[in-house]
Amino acid sequence: MVLGAFSADISPVDTHLRSGSYHIISDPRELRNTDYFRQFFKPFDWHHIVCLPYWRGSEISSGIDLRRTQKQGDFQPGEIALLKKLHPHIDTVLKRLLPAHKEQSVADWLREFAQHLPLPLLLLDWNLTPVYVNREALRQCAIWNFGAHKARAYDPRAVFQTPSAIIGACSTLRSVNLREI
Q1: Nearest CA among 93, 97, 69, 91 for reference residue 3
Q2: Which residues span the domain enclosing 165?
Q3: Of 67, 102, 137, at which residue does a domain stop?
């Protein structure tokens, strides 16, 4: 774990610090002369910061920074000790949540992308239950099931049913021995 505590005008923690030690950078004179200080510390009157970086391989994947004004005072040793105890627990949660979040984000993006395809897309599981149906597939299934004229009177989502011809063709494919294909 790397825990960086910065006071007033200090440069950010170096990303090469990868030990189990507690690292304090305490010379405020350096940071006061940097753009980092002028852009991020000074407008909010921050003078103290503690950084808890979380690593994935050789890169910092995320981090938590706690900042205080001069009036709030510097972080006390007991507070630093508590943060050191919390760090591995937060890291465990991030290791569990971030992959799931990434997977969900990709699924959401694909779903949104497929929703706007100008082609019908109907995905069925092994039991021929619809897993995904985009707008064009809803429209085409309504036309297939009711005919073009009658389908216009319905909300395609409300009357959706996989056409029997598709169910029949998929049932046939499912029952074919894969070695014969």
Answers
A1: 91
A2: 116-180
A3: 102
